[in-house]
Amino acid sequence: MRKTLVRSVSYGEVLDMMYMAKDGIVSKRRIKVIQLGELSFRAYCYLRKTNRTFTIDNVLALVPVVVKESRVI
């Protein structure tokens, strides 16, 4: 998990994340990690359209977003 976050900061990757909030509600978010700390990280959340702080222990899954371009000839 941490390895994916470090790579995201280094290369500016956008990630899809499954996250469990303090109250137990699970949400799917698209994020771009800005800063990584020991227990949490700051990221731009495309769902809320603002910077948010997330707890690393509450992240259920992280998947890099792969954008494939299609050409029409």
Structure described in brief:
With 73 residues, the chain is mainly beta.
Largest sheet: 5 strands, antiparallel
Along the chain, the helix and strand elements come as HEEEEE
Q: Could you list the spans in which at least 5 consecutive residues all have pLDDT below 50?
A: none
Q: Summarize the amount of helix as a percent range.
A: 10-25%
In the CATH hierarchy, what is the class?
Answer: Mainly Beta
CATH architecture classification: Roll
Oligomer: single chain
Task: Output the number of helix runs.
Answer: 1
* End-to-end separation: 40 Å
Shape: globular
The class by helix and strand makeup works out as: mainly beta
Q: Kindly state the number of beta strands.
A: 5
Rg (C-alpha, Å): 13 Å
Mean pLDDT: 91
Using the coordinates shown, work out and report the CATH topology.
Answer: SH3 type barrels
Biggest sheet: strands side by side, in what order? 4-3-2-1-5
Binned strand content: over 45%
How many structural units, i.e. domains?
A: 1
What are the salient characteristics of this protein?
73 residues; mainly beta; SH3 type barrels; five-stranded antiparallel β-sheet; 1 helix; globular
Q: Would you write up a description of this structure?
A:
The chain is mainly beta and 73 residues long. It has a single domain (2-64), classed as SH3 type barrels (Roll). Helix content is 14%, strand content 49%. It contains one helix and five strands. A five-stranded antiparallel beta sheet has the order 4-3-2-1-5. The radius of gyration is 13 Å and the shape is globular.
Task: Describe the SSE topology.
Elements (H helix, E strand, L loop, with lengths): L1 H10 L2 E7 L5 E11 L3 E6 L4 E6 L3 E6 L9
Antiparallel strand pairs: 1-2, 1-5, 2-3, 3-4
